[in-house]
């Protein structure tokens, strides 16, 4: 079977980036096989907060701001079309988003971040700082410890689990092939195409997309690219169901449509340990009560940890491997926000070679230079 391909594209990785890319490729008419290691993998989607978020993106990268902004602009149509295809409501909304500050030090730090980002943000998408009086005018019930907030009117959220389910359902309905519980070992040249090895099996394709999260480094090494990603742990606690009280979108506290409240946003260097710690749980709870005092007497029903996928500089990485034409790599820690961009613009790059100009600067070459 040398030089043959059973499908146009193999996508390795069934997380949010992989499935969004696979769906987009099917929508463009390509035959696609999605190979997914499954729940034994470190799924970043387990810890996703569901934010569709612009306000903190792009300190030092105008390209990242533009890429994020375009994806956010795609979200209304993307959500509607995916719901029409699958019947699954993604729960997308865009009421504007707040990052609340609980001390003068936090406010000063957030203000400095907003100032750094401002030159890269378009005039109609600026993040602004709000003082305590303005926060209380806009939001009922915030605690006395809230000293201010950053705000961007384009920010919003969605039901990330519904998004994940809808992407998989849409891919299936469009005739995509999905093989779960498959661990990919290697990619090899096969004439003018490629073969992906999985134990005793192999699959051929003209092109391969690696969207394997924390597994990317292994495949990058096989095609002569440097290490790309590292893990960062986040922990989340979830309350019992409460009557609706939080229509706003906060970066660290969300009330879901079922009434439960998510509390999170920790950032920890813990290697591949995705567990929870009592210290962090206490810090999250204390911060939540300081932000919204009426949460003091609610019950916590579960908690978990998950591993984010970060590059070494926190920016995305998109690349067609320099010496392996047709082999692509994709990773970003903003997989929900960027889902429409992956399904539309990144998929067109893979399918037709139409690389969005502001993605070309996100290659792994920057990590090789820093090594």
UniProtKB/TrEMBL annotation:
Signal peptide coordinates: none
Domain FAD dependent oxidoreductase: 8-349
Keyword Oxidoreductase: yes
GO cellular component, one term: cytoplasm
Domain of life (superkingdom): Bacteria
Gene Ontology molecular function: any one: oxidoreductase activity
UniProt keyword list: Oxidoreductase
UniProt-recorded name of the protein: FAD dependent oxidoreductase domain-containing protein
Species of provenance: Skermanella stibiiresistens SB22
Upper lineage: Bacteria, Pseudomonadati, Pseudomonadota, Alphaproteobacteria, Rhodospirillales
